[in-house]
Amino acid sequence: MLPIALFTHGRRALLTGGGNVAARKAETLHAAGLHLHVVAPRIEARIHGLLCSACSFAQRPYQPEDLAGIDLAIAATNDPAVNAQIVQDAREARVPVCDATAPERGDFSMQATVRVGDLTFTVDSGGSTPAFSQRIARELAERFDQTYADAAKALARMRVYVQTVCESAKRAEVMRELAAMPVDELAAMNPAQAEHAAESAIERLRGIASQKAMGTVVCASRASALAMTQTRSVAARLAEHGIATTIRNITTTGDTVQDRPVSSIGSTNVFVTELELALREGRADYAVHSCKDLPGVLESDMQLAAISQREDARDAFCSERYESFSSLPAGAVVGTSSPRRRSQLFALRADLCYEDIRGNVDTRLRKLREGTYDAIVLAMAGLNRLRMHATYTVPFAVEDLVPAVAQGALAIETRRDEDGLASALRASVNDREAELCVTCERAALRTLRAGCSAPLGVHAQLDGATMNVRAAFALSPGNEIVTELLSDGVTTIAQAEALGERIGRALARRISGKRARLVVLARTQERPSRIAEALRARGVDVVELRDGEAHAVEREPDMLVFPSSGSVDAAHAYL
């Protein structure tokens, strides 16, 4: 079978038969714009209703002369012998013929058809189940509405523009990229926007070609086993587009300082700053991050080129002795250095002992095996990527332990002036669903002005075109967990941003009036601060500010402290 589309303008069709089957064929032929000639001893009123100046009928039995001047014929009488004769006569006259009662006997079959603007969908069951074909056609009509017709019109405008300005060897690739855009975005474009989108696609692909000519680029990456596994996966995808990568290992502040939790190091972006410096100084062309390590707002000279397909975003309970979090005995030691995890876990079980743990995934699992901890909590994404696990590895439901913003996704960062490489990375790595979810989560992070070490969890998930986003914030360790849950239709980046901002504002309203006082503690030394420790023990939120890091302050502080080693009591008096 070879499905084809027949241009019907000016063509004549013969329909023999006047019953229900013939009536259905007549409606299809009439809708297709054919000049229709109906021949039958008795003709249904449905068919008479279709006849106009472009249609005619003869109320009599079929005659071979009826095929004169006909471009195609449909035999739809209730007499199989007559239908067989029509097929034979039509073939002798070199007229394509359809036998509506025995499709295998004719030259073609008539398919159920759905038209949405310039789009045409056809369904063919080979004549075996016409009713089911009609059902599928109805469902197609319900699924593909006018939005798809408008999107097709936008793509038609783009095609004209691409054929005008783009070299012929690149046109198909450009149109494939444009056709992959979200349908809602395409449908909403006016002619000027359609041309702009086409021009942008042409420039992106030219940039990719330029990068291919470069041959090799340099990627900045942390040196841990997990970071290298993540970076190699991105480099492999880029290599498929003809661009080789050399990996440059960079040591970050978070890698160097292992004697205390990340949240108490006294600096923001502890796994990011040195990688960005390598980009800024030209020692690397792109960097691969665990997206959850990024601040809500990038530096002005940096950009996110792509978000990878997301691994399992959940947190995981890991133990060598106990089967689940609920089976831990009271007083069991659970290792985690994340304020977010610790706060939410404490809300689930306040009878456990939560202690800090640092190190790479393999280091933490080794400490677990050695018995330092009864259980630890790690990201499922890291475990899956490294193919590691504990004897008992059980993911937490996101309803119980809301993951960190962008957990499980990789972020690929470039300098803002690296448009060609950024386009190549996006074409190679970017996952649209992950991008929408991460955009929503990062918008919430930005709205709340929270850092990557804040006790904040935000998790967005798409269900078709509906995005469900859940957020949780701990006011302080052992205190109330404030939560929000919102859902809305999301198919574009702008809609994802808007939903993230909405849940951020909703969460901020719930936090307002409940959260602890904020003290900004100015520091010039790297060693742990007894003042910060004492203030936190009194339920105070403390931001340790070093060397003018104004962006580290999440909100307007209640107090700014310039401390000496004996100033804790004086500061406490003001609180």
Describe this structure in words.
The protein is an alpha/beta fold and 575 residues long. The protein has 19 helices and 23 strands. The strands form six sheets. Strands 3-2-1-4-5 form a five-stranded parallel sheet, with helices on both faces. A five-stranded mixed sheet has the order 9-8-10-17-11, with helices on both faces. α8 (191-214) crosses α15 and α16 runs parallel beside α17 (493-511). The model is unreliable at 262-267 (pLDDT under 50).
Summarize it.
This protein is α/β, with parallel strands linked by helices. The protein is built from 19 helices and 23 strands. Strands 3-2-1-4-5 form a five-stranded parallel sheet, sandwiched between helices. A five-stranded mixed sheet has the order 9-8-10-17-11, with helices on both faces.
